[in-house]
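Posting for a labmate who doesn't have an account.
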Amino acid sequence: MSASSITAATSLTCWSCSAATSGAHFCPACGKIQPLPPGADYFAFFGLPRKLTLDLTDLEQRFHSLSWKLHPDNFVRASEDERQLSLDRSSQLNDAYRTLQDPVARVEYLLGLAGMRKEGQKKQQAPPELLEEVFELNESLDEMRDARESGGSAAAMSGLRVKLEAAQHKFESLLVDVDKELSRVSSNGTARLIPARTTQRRKKSWSV
């Protein structure tokens, strides 16, 4: 089958055997790699629901599993068309993983899926509270690394660990809030994407 024929094949049927595929990476009947379904999003690529809160360990495991299955080295003896499909799938896999593993990129991607980041118009950015918590979490991680590298005392390390855990909990809680707001926006069509609660950035109080 030609590349144009494969590309034109429906995302719900296999280009090789016409079996139902439901947009899967490989045909469940003949095992042939499938073209990218039209309009497929990064969440669907990993078999995940469209939501902001994700299990990053699970995401990483799915990434490594798909990376191995879709790698072009597995298609060196396949047809030229199938090798191209492998390259296309692998490319989207990397793009999808880079986007979904970053909470800020993830929320902005979800905004795009909701039609709220259209080109040529003012783009809705990630809520400032989320950016603030990402900054704070990274700051806590940097302090922990610096203390470890400089041989900080056990008491200092313990205090920094508590601070890091608190920042992580606060960050994860905000992700849940933003996730709920995104769901509300999708259903109501309103442009407000900042959680109702306000978050004030804590002043730096640790010196290592």
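Reply:
Got it, the structure tokens are right above this. The chain has two domains: 3-101, 128-188.
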